[in-house]
Design a protein that fits this description.
Elements: H1 8-14, H2 19-32, H3 38-45, H4 51-64, H5 69-73, H6 77-88, H7 90-98, H8 103-107, H9 109-114, H10 120-132, H11 137-161, H12 165-194, E1 201-207, H13 209-212, E2 222-230, H14 236-255, E3 266-267, E4 280-281, H15 283-292, H16 296-302, E5 306-310, H17 312-328, H18 335-348, H19 352-355, H20 366-381, H21 392-401, H22 407-431, H23 442-451, H24 458-481, H25 484-491, H26 494-498, H27 501-511, H28 516-527, H29 532-550, H30 554-568, H31 574-580, H32 584-592, H33 596-604, H34 623-635, H35 640-663, H36 669-696, E6 703-709, H37 711-714, E7 724-732, H38 740-756, E8 766-767, E9 780-782, H39 783-792, H40 796-801, E10 806-810, H41 812-826, H42 834-850, H43 869-883, H44 895-904, H45 910-934, H46 945-954, H47 965-983
Parallel strand pairs: 2-3, 2-4, 7-8, 7-9
Antiparallel strand pairs: 1-2, 1-5, 6-7, 6-10
Length: 1003
């Protein structure tokens, strides 16, 4: 180094790795070029991918072409462009050393700009023909390579000089494709020059793959299909023979190595029958093959087909044949499944050692983006011609503008595609070798990072950028590529997809809509205009109509969808969720056309639709989490009214979660009952806390409170139509405290008012008629009052009711002592005597005679009818009263658990237990499904066939089986009644008689 030259530290800071060697070469250049500003040259070199490589090649270039000294010495844009190229590509550096006469033109920023106004491929083709001139044979092939690499270097200079390489990518990829097309055009002419019989033979080359899409890499196979023909049909056979020789010559001219290297392999494997088929076919042969034999992947490949060389008219005729087939391919049976399976096969065939480094084929790579875009394009492009583009980024933009892909998702995929392609380009550019693997060495990663502007810890930074995009691409690919919507759209006809008014009316009638004209009005309201909202709904509705029709009331489903969409359609997430998130749209259509109860809940709280798009949105929420949610919601409000409203709002959302999960099959019957019970428990816990705070304020409470669940609540068997049967218990904090009873009553009154108050959420009825003395007794009692009452006055029916008593909210210690108090009553020592058994039977007989609603058919009533819920429960409860003292398994509030214990103890035969269980489960489910269908309680099998069909469909039965529902229930109940009469009445019902005490539940 000279005294005034840069130090080793300065060279290291700008990116040189071998500072000693770099210093020596800079001294050498300074000695040879007196006008050289060494410091400025170092700064220029410090901006390139590999400063060491750039400097070494610059020295070699000066030695090969001393006349370039002025360009190397002078600080200029041209020199910056030169060193950028030399630092990024050792292959193109070697080319310029062998052909230094190209340096000035290649690096001149004006050179390419001057040709930009003409057709890109035509301009470069003309230059390539000028380079080849009159040469023939090997000389022509050499000249073709020299001209090709000159153009390639010029493209690379523009690429490397761009401020943002990802923004420049489409232009670079298109220029590379145009250059390949120009080379093929020259190769076709050279082939004709070699072929003496080529006169009168039509011959053209169709570009496929990245060449067809004008998105080619620096080094890649060039995929093509060859066509041949003759003006006279009689010469067709000769034309095919000559065409085959021309195609073979084109492959050789482009792919063979000469003293000037090679261009790239010409790959014709995408032709009909692949490598097994003839190299060249006629137009008629192509037509027959694609119409009769072509596989799904071939139509996907044809998506990028375009004319590239030879007879353009012949190519246009061929495209006129294949393009309609391409855009109708998605209607083939199993099209979407086949494309998805093909992507999986491609991924599985990637060598395991390479999978994690693959920019192209691996998870999160270019193929994920390309397959996603192509599948969406092929499915939706059948009816929407704006989507028909051979170029990935153009097609992605069209999908975005058409509302098929969300703006954010499209932007993320666009950004990722550009980065992945630029990484691929920079890696290939270095040695002009075909590769799609990320390097592993620190030096290669450093060079790659620096080529994309990374300077500090370039190797780590570029890997982090790549990995981040890889993860995002995989996420979006899995969401877009495997959309259930795609398969559904592919199954529709083109007219159905377009949803014209006339076609819509016909289709609506065929699908089973009762009012097609009214449905069309809803469709017009949803889809009119040019807003993105209307656009997305135009894509969704053709498919959703079929899903609405799968429900029992498609008209109501479409109306509800319009109501919800009118409320949520302008939100940023609603329609995007339906389009993008798994099966959200299908689930919503199913729910809306199946359940008035769900529709009512959704209309009250439409934003809860988001639950259908969340993969975990319909998962069961554990009881403790429910309690926390409701209590926390209450705690965020000081006023009682606001706190109760918050509690009811959370309860409404959680109820809707259960309803939706039930309708889409995420919960079974037992899980529905358990979820509804846990939700009511949590509601009472939170409500009791709010009521206590409202009454007591900042003072210390005078009482401890507790709520006891009775009936189906106590048995953890709540259904949608169930009231919450409860009893209220208090205990003074200090015995004898004046006002304790009044405070307890005030708390209970506040609780009942707060939880059953008016509001948009569905109300819950707190029913306390099972308390001591029924409606005649006090609403709330102290623990001692309960004790005294049960010691002196308790009736048999009350002991039976206590079999299902379960503390659900309030003070835990009070709950424990209350449970200890009632256990001797419901599980009496030694069981109940024969007189008490007769009393229970008489009471049951009286209930059968008096409590069935007027006009109700005892054969079809789910609760009080023969073989219904009451029958099964009384059988179980009678056995509990008689045997629970000696069988711990019977000490449960749950009907089915107790029935299982009776079976295991041998007190009920397995066959009888199965009959009773079947009846109880079916009755419970029919009651729940009746509420889901009609939005209100259904106590009997509906007589109206449409209601029966709706209930049957929610049960998962095939269409048309609703008429069989009544007979199924009668048969089930009849068998259960026979078991009840044997087990409860001991073969015959006991005549009704007045019990010792009246049953307050009648009042």
């Amino acid at each position: 180094m000279t005294a005034g030259g840069p130090t080793g530290g300065a060279l290291a800071r700008v990116g040189f790795s071998d500072v000693r060697r770099a210093g020596g070469m800079l001294q050498e250049l300074s000695a040879a070029l007196p006008d050289l500003d060494g410091a400025r040259l170092v700064r220029d070199l410090g901006m390139v991918a590999d400063p060491d490589l750039a400097l070494l090649t610059l020295v070699r270039l000066r030695e090969a072409a001393p006349d370039l000294g002025d360009l190397i010495s002078t600080a200029s844009t041209q020199r910056e462009r030169l060193v950028a190229l030399l630092g990024a590509s050792t292959a193109l550096g070697d080319h310029l050393i062998h052909h230094p006469e190209q340096v000035r033109e290649v690096t001149d920023p004006k050179s390419r700009a001057q040709r930009a106004g003409r057709s890109a491929q035509r301009a470069v083709t003309e230059r390539m023909f000028e380079t080849v001139g009159d040469r023939t044979g090997r000389e022509a092939m050499d000249a073709l390579r020299v001209g090709y690499h000159r153009e390639l270097a010029e493209i690379a200079v523009e690429d490397l000089a761009a401020e943002d390489a990802t923004a420049e990518l489409p232009a670079v990829a298109a220029a590379l494709a145009d250059l390949a097309g120009a080379a093929l055009e020259v190769a076709v002419q050279l082939a004709r020059d070699e072929e003496p019989e080529s006169e009168g033979v039509r011959f053209s080359v169709i570009a496929m793959g990245k060449t067809g899409g004008r998105e080619l890499n620096y080094i890649s196979d060039v995929d093509v299909i060859f066509l041949a023909g003759a003006d006279d049909e009689a010469d067709e056979e000769r034309a095919l023979r000559v065409g085959a020789r021309l195609a073979t010559a084109v492959i050789r001219i482009c792919g063979q190595s000469t003293a000037e290297g090679s261009l790239w392999p010409v790959d014709a494997a995408l032709r009909p029958e692949g490598k097994q088929g003839p190299l060249v076919r006629s137009l008629a042969s192509h037509r027959e093959y694609y119409q009769r034999w072509a596989k799904t992947w071939e139509f996907q490949a044809l998506l990028k087909a375009r004319h590239v060389a030879g007879d353009e008219t012949l190519s246009r005729e061929w495209l006129d044949v294949v393009e309609p087939l391409v855009w109708s391919a998605s209607s083939r049976d199993g099209f979407v499944d086949e494309v998805q399976a093909m992507r999986r096969r491609v991924e599985q065939n990637v060598p395991k050692a390479e999978a994690d480094r693959q920019l192209k084929l691996g998870p999160g790579g270019l193929r994920d983006i390309e397959f996603s875009v192509q599948l969406l394009e092929l499915v939706h492009g059948r009816a929407d011609e704006t989507l028909r583009s051979e170029t990935t980024l153009e097609a992605l933009a069209a999908l975005r503008d058409g509302g098929y892909v969300g703006r954010d998702d499209a932007a993320a995929l666009d950004s990722a595609y550009r980065l992945l392609r630029v990484l691929e380009h920079r890696i290939q550019l270095y040695r002009l070798r075909r590769t799609h693997l990320m390097p592993t060495s620190e030096a290669e990663l450093r060079r790659l990072g620096r080529s994309l502007g990374e300077r500090r810890d370039a190797a780590t930074a570029i890997v982090q950028r790549w990995r981040g995009q890889q993860r995002e691409v995989r996420r979006l690919h899995e969401r877009l590529f495997y959309r259930p919507l795609l398969s559904a759209v592919a199954r529709l006809s083109t007219d159905e997809v377009r949803l014209s008014t006339d076609a819509a009316k016909d289709r609506l009638g065929a699908l089973g809509f009762r009012d097609p004209a009214g449905a069309v009005r809803h469709l017009e309201s949803l889809t009119e205009g040019v807003s993105r909202r209307a656009t997305i709904q135009r894509h969704l509705l053709p498919v959703m109509l079929g899903w609405f029709a799968d429900g029992a009331d498609p008209d109501a489903g479409l109306l509800a969808f319009r109501q919800i969409s009118d409320t949520l359609g302008t939100t940023h997430w609603y329609l995007r969720m339906l389009r993008d998130e798994g099966s959200a749209a299908e689930r919503l259509a199913h729910v809306l056309s199946s359940s008035r109860y769900a529709v009512d809940l959704l209309i009250r709280s439409p934003e809860a639709v988001v639950l259908l798009g969340d993969p975990k949105g319909l998962s069961r929420v554990d009881p403790e989490t429910l309690r926390t949610r409701l209590v926390s919601a209450a705690g965020r409000h000081e006023g009682a009214a606001e706190a109760f409203q918050a509690v009811r709002t959370v309860r409404a959302r959680e109820l809707l979660r259960v309803v939706l999960a039930d309708l889409v099959g995420e919960l079974d019957d037992a899980q529905v009952r358990a979820s509804l019970t846990a939700l009511t428990d949590a509601l009472l816990e939170a409500g009791l806390a709010v009521a206590t705070r409202a009454v007591v304020g900042d003072e210390d409470p005078l009482v401890r409170m507790m709520v006891v669940g009775m009936g189906r609540l106590g048995g953890a068997e709540l259904g949608y139509a169930s009231d919450a049967d409860v009893m209220y218990v208090y205990e003074p904090v200090v015995e004898g405290t004046e006002g304790a009873a009044e405070q307890a009553l005030a708390i209970v009154t506040e609780l009942r008012k707060g939880l059953t108050g008016s509001g948009p959420d569905p109300a819950i009825e707190l029913d306390a008629t099972l308390r001591p003395e029924g409606k005649s007794g006090p609403l709330v009692r102290s623990l001692e009052s309960y004790r005294a009452y049960y010691d002196r006055w308790s009736a048999g029916w009350e002991s039976q009711a206590l079999l299902r008593a379960r503390p659900v909210a309030g003070d835990a210690d009070l709950a424990r002592r209350f449970t200890e108090l009632i256990e001797p009553l419901r599980w009496p020592e030694g069981g109940i005597d024969a007189r008490a058994v007769r009393e229970v039977r008489r009471l049951k007989a009286r209930m059968e005679a008096e409590r069935l609603p007027r006009g109700a058919d005892p054969r079809t009533h789910f609760k009080l009818g023969l073989g219904g819920l009451s029958d099964v429960e009384w059988v179980v409860q009678l056995h509990q009263l008689r045997h629970a003292h000696e069988l711990p398994g019977l000490r449960t509030t749950r009907t089915l658990d107790a029935l299982q214990a009776l079976e295991e103890a041998g007190l009920v035969e397995a066959a009888d237990a199965a009959v009773l269980r079947r009846s109880w489960v079916l009755a419970s489910r029919l009651r729940d499904v009746g509420v889901l269908w009609r939005g209100r309680p259904v106590d009997s099998v509906p007589s109206h066939l449409r209601d029966a069909e709706g209930i049957s469909r929610i049960l998962g039965r095939a269409p048309g089986l609703g008429s069989k529902l009544a007979e199924e229930w009668r048969r089930t109940a009849r068998r259960a009644r026979q078991v009840v009469e044997r087990l409860f009445y001991e073969t015959a019902p006991v005549p009704a008689a007045s019990p010792r005490r009246s049953d307050p539940r009648r009042s």
